[in-house]
Amino acid sequence: MDSKHRCVELNDGHVIPVLGFGTYASETVPKRMITDCTKLAIDAGFRHIDAAYLYQNEEEVGLAIQSKIADGTVKREDIFLTSKLWSTCHRQELVQPSLERSLKKLNLDYVDLYLIHFPVSLRPGDEMYPTDEHGKLILDTVDLCATWEVMEECKDAGLAKSIGVSNFNRRQLEIILNKPGLKYKPVCNQVECHPYLNQSKLLSFCKSKDIVLVAYGALGTQRYKHCVDKNTPVLLDDPVLCDMAKKHKKTPALIALRYQLQRGIVVLAKSFTEHRIKENMQVFEFQLPTEDMKVLDGLNRNLRYFAGFMFEGHPNYPFYDEY
Q: Which candidate, 91, 88, 96, 211, places its Cα nearest to that of 144?
């Protein structure tokens, strides 16, 4: 890690800040709050903003970035912005128009990183989650290598500086890596990763291929009723994590974030509370000793908060594989 700029180099020569601000919010969060909190994050020092078409708040994120550029806090090149291609747009003819639609919403000329959000394809259309009369998701079958070819074209066109994937398992990464005529490798794989799901095998594989692992859900997750089992344990209440936080005079959240950084993982932190947004920047102010890292490794229980059960049954459902 480049400690001065708190960035790591991607396999295409660009750099990504190791701490990012996540912008996903449930429908109960007012859109205005997304703009306000993204501005607060930039003021606090965040330079990596993680967005997605699925989140339906790209306009609000864009407003925050434009506002901070206008008031002189940052220049466009200071911000590393990610957006993502949703599952209804995997067909080749839909990839670039989807990115262009996101850019229009963001009011930007390019994104720094564009990801295939999820390897499962859904029927194209205006619905994010197209369903039949029985409420079952309508799946689509798309060759992800064909999708990837247009992602490469988006990079060549300057619409995305870097391209990568999200929620891919090892097998799916290898399909892209072994694609005949591959022009650009994915620079990263963004996956759920936290002390209860430390992704050690996937991390080792990604490192061996010069692919950065980006962690979402790094603090556990909120209990989103449509996709998270409310009976799962709360990560930040874990007694081992809480004891370690007391020892270092930090919050359990900061311990969980620091754990990822020291493993060479780029980590996303999401909060809509001003003091927590500022507090998360303290992750650079301390180091965990080796023995503490080993203790945190021992918390792994392969617990996935977001298992994407609605996508089960599709041949590209990624979580049947061990990693």
A: 91
Counted domains in the chain: 1
Phi, psi of 111 (to 5 degrees): -105, 155
Q: Is residue 321 part of a domain?
A: no
Q: How many other CB atoms are there within 10 angstroms of residue 190's CB atom? A: 27
Q: Is residue 319 part of a domain?
A: no
**Which CATH number covers residue 138?**
3.20.20.100
The lowest-confidence range among 211-220, 225-234, 277-286, 295-304 is 225-234
Catalytic sites, residue numbers: 55
pLDDT at 5: 58
Mean pLDDT of all residues in 118-134: 96
DSSP letter assigned to residue 218? B
Whether 252 and 283 have beta carbons less than 8 Å apart is answered as: no
| Distance spanning both ends of the chain, measured CA to CA | 25
State the pLDDT confidence band at 2, using cuts at 50, 70 and 90.
very low
pLDDT band, very low/low/confident/very high, at 222 (cuts 50, 70, 90): low
Domain-located, residue 76: yes
Range of the domain at 91: 7-306
5 among the known binding-site residues?
no
Rg (CA), the chain: 19
Q: How far is CA 41 from the centre of its chain?
A: 16
Sign for the CA dihedral angle at 5, 9, 13, 19 comes to negative
| 323 belongs to a structural domain | no
Q: Provide the pLDDT for residue 228.
A: 62
Residue 67 contacts by C-beta under 8 Å, 6 or more apart in sequence? 35, 39
